[in-house]
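Hey, can you fold this one?
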Amino acid sequence: LGIAFGGLRPSERAAMKGGALTLAIVAGVDARNTLSRTPPMGWMSWELFRCDIDCSKGEVGCISEWLYRNQTDALVDGGYTQAGYLGIHIDDCWMQKAPRNGAPLKADVNRFP
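Sure. Predicted structure:
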């Protein structure tokens, strides 16, 4: 490490070097994590809309493309993106009801044209 430990016994030098190495590792880990000073922040439909997929009563309370586009616009227009809210999280209930035969999931074409 290039640290001078003059006048110390070998065991004391080893302890000091171990402490300095631990400090260097912790500092390196801390520097690596500077991009995550806040948790990922965004909007999740599940908190309010759960799995409401009945759009026959209107689009406002239904999981659909309309809902996600409007929430995205609201995040931008309300200044939330400047505060760090950078994501729209599509949780669940976006897909067609498909048979369980291993087929890939596909978006519901009526709610997500």
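The mean pLDDT is 76. Let me know if you want another pass with a different chain boundary.
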